[in-house]
Amino acid sequence: MAAEHGPTxxxxxxxxxxxxxxxxxxxxxxxxxxxxxxxxxxxxxGVLGTFILWRAAKSATAGVPGxxxxxxxxxxxxxxTQAKGIIHNAESRKLVAPLALTVFVWIFLLNAMDFLPxxxxxxxxxxxxxxxxxxxxxxxxxxxxxxxxxxTLGLSTSVLLVCLFYNIKIKGFGGWVHELFTxxxxxxxxxxxxxxxxxxxxxxxxxxxxxxxxxxNMYAGELVFMLIALMGGGAALSLSGILLPIGQVxxxxxxxxxxxxxxxxxxxxxxxxxxxxxxxxxDAH
Length: 285
Known about the structure:
Blueprint: H1 9-16, H2 36-58, H3 67-86, H4 90-112, H5 120-131, H6 149-182, H7 192-233, H8 244-282
Helix pairs in contact: 1-7, 2-4, 3-4, 4-8, 6-7, 6-8, 7-8
């Protein structure tokens, strides 16, 4: 009987990049298909982030703060300072500043899922899936929601809706419609179609680039962790490969330390762009 071989590098990466979905896709674009793993982890980490902030608010004291309270206070002060520098409407900041704080904490937690061992949760899911009588080879589970384009575009689309809300609230519906047709090139009737087209392109470009930037960075980081994980598997190919597990630990540790910066930076950039776009909604052209 021939020995059973493990998956190839391509099969391994392909398996890890496949989402747990509610049904098979019927085409390249199928809006009836949902990535259940991204939804699950996003909701779970959203609840966790909300609990952390609630716990910090509940345990806050007027005396000398503990480490946890001090860290949250520094974070809140940082976000509030950025909001004041971009959005000058104090009434709007009552909603926008907490929104920006929520965005930062939530996306940071979503990104931080990349620090878990690549095979940890997928292997646990395979055991659960197999115990339920299903083929474990089809037990798909991705644990980094921000490496899923549907998640990041969903977040950026939510920011777009907030911007549209403030465009209408600050300028009035009539004022905003007037701006759509008269900016940026002027109020001449011949320029109305051009102005409207440019406005639509601007809204679309902001939304797509906002989501794609976060997705691209986290997707690339996820791939690098998978490639590092493959180094350990290569040790079985030859005696000289015994050094690969050691290299895997060293390289993985270095990349994880560097990735801490990426995780925090991408959350900060997404938050700052959210503030900038909402701030632009307050400006009249």
